Predict the 3D structure of the following.
Amino acid sequence: MKILITGSNGQLGTELQQLLVDSPHHDVLGVDIDTCDITDRDQILGAITGWNPDLILHGAAFTAVDRCEVDPETAYAVNALATRFIADGARRVGAHVVYVSTDYVFDGTKAGPYVEWDAPSPQSVYGRSKLGGEIEIDPSWTIARTSWVCSAHGNNMVKTVLRLAGEQDRLTFVDDQVGHPTFASDLAAKVLELGVARVPGVHHVTNQGAVSWFEFVQAILEAGGHSPDKVQPISTEAYLAGRPADAPPMATRPANSVLDNFALRASGLGELRDFREPLGEVVTALQATA
């Protein structure tokens, strides 16, 4: 199988390439902004029709959620319009597409976990632009919604917390936003599985274990050999009230980002493991290279 990976330099793209590097069954082409601008219709159509992939794993996205608020045109160009171009190319060559989406398509007000058939209601430019990308995906293709992605690569919460823990005596994180931390290595394996099998429809793909950001930071600290008491909880309201008046706008975060992986579970495709297992693996890898 010939597999095209968009966003190949990102957390998910890096893990996908590492997963496939020694595969005797697949030929892989990774593209990112340095090799192919997906917002340029001619460039991405040329890449797809020229290489003729069987499968496109579309992980490229503009994920700086606060920057999306002040630059909505870029957010929509990358997350929605570029997905339209990729879908056009995929139809021309008969490729299956896996589009990686986000918990931000929901407003976060549901009392329990979100299942795949709950109606989206994004409250941020990022969420609306990613939902725009979902709309471009054919029903026979795959949407994999995920949340709170971390890995040993790129910028993410695990690396930030470990850095701050070495610099500060006290950390403060909100305790009223809840979700599933997801590790890119586990996410990559499931995204590849769904794509190779051409499994259609929306799937929530996260590691298990619902926690607040405060609780996630406690787990990171503990995994890194720090006391979990180093972090203190704060409400979102109090955090926002303490920001400077001239601070740039922040995107609205869903209070409830918990995605129930019902479609995976009920289809017998298997859920990802508890997030604490890959968290330990990532912390160990980071400490080994420090």
Residues 2-156+181-208+258-274 form a domain with the Rossmann fold fold (CATH 3.40.50.720).
